[in-house]
Specification:
The protein has 493 residues and is of the alpha+beta class. It is 30% helix and 45% strand. The chain is built from ten helices and 22 strands. It has a 22-stranded antiparallel sheet that branches. A hairpin with a 2-residue loop joins strand 19 and strand 20. Helix 4 runs antiparallel to helix 6 and helix 8 crosses helix 9. The longest helix has 44 residues.
């Protein structure tokens, strides 16, 4: 009997000791988390026009759980330099480890330091959100804090229905899952918001406007996050958006995304940012595979971080970016210029990797790649400095004549007043506009015809230009460009 009692008492004693030890550590863990959060918020907020900070207002420690209260301060600057202050309050119940009851009830047996359950507090500022949530708490979340300081959890919002004299906004419940290590250098998150419906009236005409959004997603997987740089991808996606104004046909956008990724390449940092739309439908015309993709490549890491640090120091000195740059000293300007020149010494590349779209009858594409270098010491004027910074340029463009016809038809239809042009007249004007554009592109020499596609190519290096297969010097190319534009009548008299 004594052995049985001992077998039960020893684990209970160890569990009690672990719980007591954890209870003494939870407050310091919470304060460390607040400090890390403020560090990341400051890095992300530079230049954004808003300052966000987190404060631990109170902490009451218990044996099995503790309670904490946080304040989120948000300062937003307007165009006139004035600052609006907002404060949100969060209540937090922290279950102590190693085995919080809420985790045991879900069958989660891995020991943890604490389990946080927080929610937005009702205040005069948030009262409208509570009203819109129909009695639910608008924002709640849970965070699991590991013994290694890592955190994993989720944020959840209630369904919101906001109504006033201007219209209504309905927002479906949303959730955001996240995971981060102790110092926040590795962060993963993914979130989803299923639906937003907006029903308003235009103030100028009283015309009703309906906007619906479906399938909003957010994802990020960043490693080695430091000084504002995180390696890995991030994305915002939208499955469908529909905009309808009055009796006009709806504009429908499908499969839209903004994607970003930072990586280490063979010659430095490479970053790519891409905007893509799968399909846009408007006024009977459909555009597909719209893309706008930029990249910065071969960025020397230490030089880039030094440039960003100087930029942040300038932004920190005033409430708005405009004021910061207006008050920039000559020493700060020289330092910023020196950092930029250091970056150019490593010959970075700036590229418009893809710009284009398609219709049912054709496609258009444009790409531009600029290889940069340090400007010449003899370049004293801004124009000469910019010219000497360009090591090489390569541009390629192509557009199908049938796509030109589709765009011309949309422009003619948009400019025509109701009832003034019949279908035959619309077709005639569309053909005339198509021939005018195509003829001008060919006659000026800016394009050549390959089948039914207008194509152009430009390559510059070593003070030589190759344009549409024709080699010339830079002055010759500039003379050609100016003359062709003037002969086309684009410069007037």
């Amino acid at each position: 009997m004594k052995k049985l009692a001992l077998a039960v008492a020893v684990p209970l004693a160890l569990f009690g000791a672990a719980t007591f030890y954890t209870s003494t550590q939870v407050e310091s863990t919470a304060r460390d988390a607040v400090d890390q959060a403020n560090l990341k918020l400051r890095e992300m907020g530079v230049g954004a026009g808003a300052d966000v900070s987190l404060t631990l207002l109170s902490f009451e420690r218990g044996l099995l759980s503790s309670t904490a209260r946080y304040q989120i301060d948000i300062d937003v600057a307007d165009d006139e330099g004035n600052t609006e202050h907002y404060a949100l309050l969060l209540n937090d119940r922290l279950e102590h480890g190693p085995l919080p009851v809420s985790r045991l009830s879900r069958g989660q047996l891995m020991p943890v330091a604490a389990q946080s359950h927080f929610e937005l507090e009702r205040t005069p500022l948030t009262q409208k959100l509570f009203d819109a949530a129909s009695g639910e708490v608008p924002l709640v979340g849970e965070v699991t804090i590991g013994y290694d300081g890592g955190q994993a959890g989720d944020l959840r919002t209630a369904a919101l229905n906001i109504e006033d004299e201007d219209g209504s906004v309905r927002i479906a419940p949303a959730n955001l899952n996240f995971e981060a290590n102790r110092d926040g250098s590795d962060v993963r998150m993914d979130g989803e918001l299923a639906e937003i419906d907006i029903d308003l009236q235009r103030s100028d005409s009283g015309q009703p406007v309906q906007v619906s959004l479906r399938g909003i997603g957010l994802s990020a997987d960043k490693q080695d996050y430091d000084a504002g740089f995180g390696f890995g991808p991030s994305a915002i996606t939208l499955q469908r958006m529909e905009i309808k104004a009055g009796d006009e046909p709806a504009v429908v956008i499908q499969q839209a995304s903004v994607e970003e990724a930072l990586s280490r390449g063979s010659r430095g940092l490479d970053q790519i940012i891409g905007y893509r739309i799968g399909e846009v439908s408007a006024k009977g015309q459909t555009f597909r595979n719209l893309a706008l993709v930029f990249s910065l490549r071969n960025l020397e890491e230490s030089s880039l971080k030094a440039l960003v640090a100087s930029y942040k120091d300038i932004l920190d000195q005033s409430a708005t970016p405009q004021e910061s740059f207006a008050g920039m000293t000559s020493a700060q300007q020289q330092e910023l210029q020196a950092r930029a020149l250091q970056l150019l010494e490593h010959k970075p590349t700036l590229a418009l990797d893809e710009f284009g779209f398609e219709t049912a009858h054709g496609a258009a594409r444009l790409s531009v790649v600029l290889d940069l270098q340090s400007p010449s010491a003899e370049a004293f004027t801004p124009d000469a400095m910019i010219t000497s910074m360009l090591a090489s340029l390569k541009a390629d463009a192509g557009i199908d004549r049938n796509l030109v016809r589709d765009i011309a038809g949309l422009v003619v239809q948009n400019n025509a007043r109701d009832g003034q042009l019949d279908q035959a007249a619309l077709q005639q004007e569309t053909e005339a506009a198509t021939e005018l554009f195509s003829g001008m592109a060919l006659n000026t020499g800016w394009s050549r015809l390959e089948g039914e596609r207008l194509v152009s190519s430009l390559h510059y290096a070593n003070d030589k230009v190759t344009f549409n297969g024709r080699e010339m010097s830079v002055p010759e190319f500039l003379g050609f460009a100016f003359g062709s534009v003037q002969n086309a009548g684009l410069l007037g008299q």
